[in-house]
Model the fold of this input.
Amino acid sequence: MSLVVLGTVALDHVKTPAGERKEMLGGSAAHFAMSARLFTGVEIAAVVGRDFPLPHLKFLKRKNVNLDSLVMSDGKTFRWSGEYQKNDLNTAVTKYTELGVLGTYIPKPVDHQRKASHVFLANFDPDLQEQFLSHFKTPQLIGLDSMNLWIATKQKSLRRLMKKVDLFVANDSEARALTQENNLIKAAQSLRAMGPEMIVIKKGEHGMLFLGPKDMFSFPAYPVDKVVDPTGAGDTFAGGLMGYLSRARKVDGATLRQACVYATTLASFNVQGFGMEKTAGLSMSAVEQRKKALEKFFSLKKS
Amino acid sequence: MSLVVLGTVALDHVKTPAGERKEMLGGSAAHFAMSARLFTGVEIAAVVGRDFPLPHLKFLKRKNVNLDSLVMSDGKTFRWSGEYQKNDLNTAVTKYTELGVLGTYIPKPVDHQRKASHVFLANFDPDLQEQFLSHFKTPQLIGLDSMNLWIATKQKSLRRLMKKVDLFVANDSEARALTQENNLIKAAQSLRAMGPEMIVIKKGEHGMLFLGPKDMFSFPAYPVDKVVDPTGAGDTFAGGLMGYLSRARKVDGATLRQACVYATTLASFNVQGFGMEKTAGLSMSAVEQRKKALEKFFSLKKS
Done:
């Protein structure tokens, strides 16, 4: 089994009540991979510029992230800068975005990746996501993420793409924006009617909601009493979800629940440090330990 | 065991996207009792005016709610009118409040109630809550609710009272306002440091969070895809919680979890109809059925 993710590899400048970090390794594909690598081999399709720090590349390789489809182009690496306020750590206020090489990148998997069993299309221009997807032969599971920008500017493309994927991941505000439904249960049902068999709505501090053909379930988030930097939490969640499903090789109800608990667990580590500070050093045993604590947190049994 | 609740019995005028209702039986004590009666005998301390419709009184009696401490005074019954918008069914916009007899009411339990094992002080002026509480001999469990009005205008009184209660129930915005903490885990810890051994934070559609001396747990809300009228959901939750604890006669971890699942279940019925439309007709078997569905909703096991 193999997992390919299309997304961004970026240099982030983040300011939160806990501090400020510049030129951090970030981007949806990088956060996704840092989480998925704990479960399975993961391959990144993304672009960086000539200015991209080599230590970041070495770091990703050292974490067993395959970079065969990471393109280095003439120009500057995609940069994002955001700030979070004390009273709303769920919402980033974007300070600036420098597309750089991302503006002209046409993503394409290398040949051996075309047989990948699992493909995840992290937040990206939906037309390019669809084009990228067309290169794959017969993936068993295709996951998709998007963002408010594309819902506002390319909703037609996004909706066309949604018909081609199995699993759609959105946060609550995206789910509401795309469906025009405030009630999240209705929003999930409405998203599912758009095509994907499985819908995951990420609710930040309130956990997640899953809706599938036979299943609906919801778990709370792991209780984190100090959020340092939520950047990448959604991608970390998606990486855990797809990574676990790729390893499990099945998508029955019990497996999906396990995947969502792992995803929730991974996301909780992500928010406790800047960038990948907490996820980069994670061992599976640390993950398992917190997963057990999370399961206890919403268990009816007191142990 | 016996459960006494101090609160309001009101006539509500509510407008929601699902419709409008006038002169409905409402108020914190009434909603609380309609939920708690499913588990235990419950006695209301409240005031109504001479204009209070007798059918409402008969209705409460028929539901086995004890009205020995329901006072009928010269004047008009407390009236509240609120409206909910489609895009935020969690927040009522108050249209008007007519205090009427509530403005001069000094609550006091009748003699036989002074030995009550369980007392709940629903949202009320904290000075009067404290005065009311002083009449009880040695309750095993005292619960307290409040609201943003008292947090803003009588916080000193509220904080003094919090030191005298065992269980404090707040919704997320109240918890944040009282603690000045945006993070709900921290807010719960901070509330607990103010005195009550047990804290329940109600999160509306996102479920609830419990923090006790040995326990912290969280359950999602039952998935309701059409909220008709959320008025009284918090009181219905508190009624289920205190009603179950009163019947169980203990407060260990497993019992508290059961109490919170029942409370969450009851609240889900409340929001599906105007006023007490859905809770008034409830049988325990309907409650048990939905409680099972709720437990399945956040279970790791697929059944």
